[in-house]
Write a structure and sequence with these properties.
about 170 residues, 3-stranded antiparallel sheet, alpha+beta, about 15% strand, two-stranded antiparallel sheet, elongated
Length: about 170
């Protein structure tokens, strides 16, 4: 603003004048930092960390319950009629626990491992395929258990959003 430094004899009166102007206007335009009315925080889904987290029940169905439900609906699930025996020794479904009588041979995956599909819960997997280590953790929603997707990445934090539409 100034191309040269102000002399000291002008600097002190100028600063006093600025201070007086500030004090005068601060009396006229008083700003309250607290609102006059108390705001209601009930609009937020998750108020604070004082709220207890919900109990998470993982949905690992039991094959006997699924078979009984299908039989009640008039669509019983029958065992697989095999022409050839299974090439891989598998005892049961890795998700619902159905015995190997309900498992299909479901081709091969892109790495050449034999895949299976459960006729009861439609779960597909390759039992001999080694699990690859994950480079990053999978965050889960505390309300429904779905995986969270990264929505925004900021300097000090990352915001995740639940992918569940329910």
């Amino acid at each position: 603003m100034f191309s040269r430094n102000l002399p000291n004899f002008l600097l002190k009166p100028l600063m006093n004048f600025v201070l007086l102007v500030y004090l005068f206007f601060s009396r006229l335009f008083h700003v309250d930092f607290e609102p006059k009315e108390k705001l209601d925080d009930n609009y937020t889904k998750f108020n604070s960390f004082d709220d207890p987290l919900p109990d998470i029940e993982y949905n690992n169905p039991d094959y006997q319950e699924i078979l009984a439900e299908a039989k009640e609906n008039g669509e019983p699930i029958k065992a697989v009629n095999r022409r050839k025996p299974l090439t891989v020794d598998v005892e049961k479904c890795s998700k619902c626990g159905a015995p190997k009588e309900y498992l299909y041979s479901f081709g091969h995956d892109k790495d050449g491992y034999q895949k299976f599909q459960c006729k009861v819960c439609d779960h597909q997997w390759a039992p001999e395929k080694p699990e690859q280590p994950k480079n990053h953790p999978t965050y889960r929603c505390p309300f429904c258990g779905y995986a969270l997707s990264k929505e925004k990445e900021r300097k000090n934090f990352t915001k995740y959003k639940c992918r569940n539409d329910d």
